[in-house]
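Quick one, T. Sequence first:
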Amino acid sequence: MKIRESIAGIRAYVPGKPIEETAREIGMRPDEIIKLASNENPLGPSPLAVEAMKEAAEGVNLYPDGGAVALREQLATFHGFTPENIVQGAGSSELIELLAHICLESDGELIAAKYSFTLYPLMTQLFGAKYTEVENKADFTHDTAAMLRAITPNTRLIFITNPTNPLGTMIGQEEIDDFMRAVPEHVLVVFDEAYIHFAGEQPDTLKYVREGRNVAVLRTFSKAYGLAGVRIGYAITTPAIAELLHKARSPFNTSSLAQAAAAAALRDAEHLKHSVQVVRSGMKQYEAAFTELGLEYIPSHGNFILVKVGDGAATYHYCLQRGVILRPMTGYGLNEWVRISIGTMNQNERCIRLLREMRSH
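Structure tokens:
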């Protein structure tokens, strides 16, 4: 069998270790395991979203609304756009793939920061295009000036992950505006804002969509809204770009359950507010503990924090054997670091206790 050369060399995306698998391996019950590896909402989804899914479950013998019309109308009203500006996806990860579908060919190029979502290089390789990785600044933020210098006539996509994963750093409005003033028209700029709800001062990137620029802003219900398991996200972009994305997506790419859950979650402002408050309190909890333990960390605008522990793999395995799943950063070349998702106060304290134990050994 002959397969595409670009597929053969791809290293598949490795998600955070599942709770059930960990429980089997270490002989603990699943309810004894704490997963702080995948930046999920420790509170779970809105009760309104759960109820909406229960009601929608009675109709799963029927195909979902292929155009997600009701959800797109609700999202358009929420953000001050028209439904023609909204494209639904199975999480923002599918939208990243759709953007690659409409922009990348073998002679195309995608630019992203060195420390950003691993799906960007994977998708670039999938389409046989060129991936250009730009070093982050010393403070781990995006170096937008260097990204501008990296642009060539073949550049098709630039991803600005803000706040960025796995670092949690963020660039502000002034730097974004300077960047957008200089970026050429042949480039589609993607602002991947999966963690924007946790950021304090949020830059306005949607204004570029209103101006008709070649821009797509990605949002997800997986993080702050707690709907990672049903896979639902969306892009806000110009009607012309949205039309192309709709052409590239599969006919029923988001399920009835996902659409119902997202619509209900969007109405539950209190749950979103509480989720953000839990993250901010937990962030202070970790920062205080790291300061006490003398551990270097990167101040984060997301719902996770990167901490320098000396031996990331050893720390990961030590915590894993005791029922706490963290995320080692070896895949990014950050071998001394681990990423910790913010959990509840009790979950955070259990993780901190293990880090303290390791330091005392």
